[in-house]
Amino acid sequence: MQTLGAALAGIAPGVVTIELPWATALTQQHGFLHAGMVATALDSACGYAGFTLMAEEAAVLTVEFKINLLAPAQGERFRMEGRVLKPGRTITVCEGRAFALDGDREKLVATMGCTLMAVTGRDAVQG
Questions:
Q1: pLDDT tens for each residue of 72-86
Q2: pTM (predicted TM-score)
């Protein structure tokens, strides 16, 4: 997230918000935030949301996601929201929403469905 200039903006059990500013280095050929950047930040928001409900000794890994790009990601800044739909001991299902913010206007630009796995007992994967 540091590479994107993203920051944790909100955290509650099962809900995480990440915000990031528009930056030229993160855009595609038309100046919109690149879909890969939107997907990356949404994946992190969903992953951290799921992580808030996992056992203390668990680490989190994404095992699947699907993104719907609804509109060009054009704005001064962006808000990515991750929310747990169904927590589980091993598998957690989340949804994400990405908003482009421009002045006092906000526009939904993407949604994500995300499946996470709680990982325990692996030395290479730690929370």
A1: 999 999 999 999 999
A2: 0.93
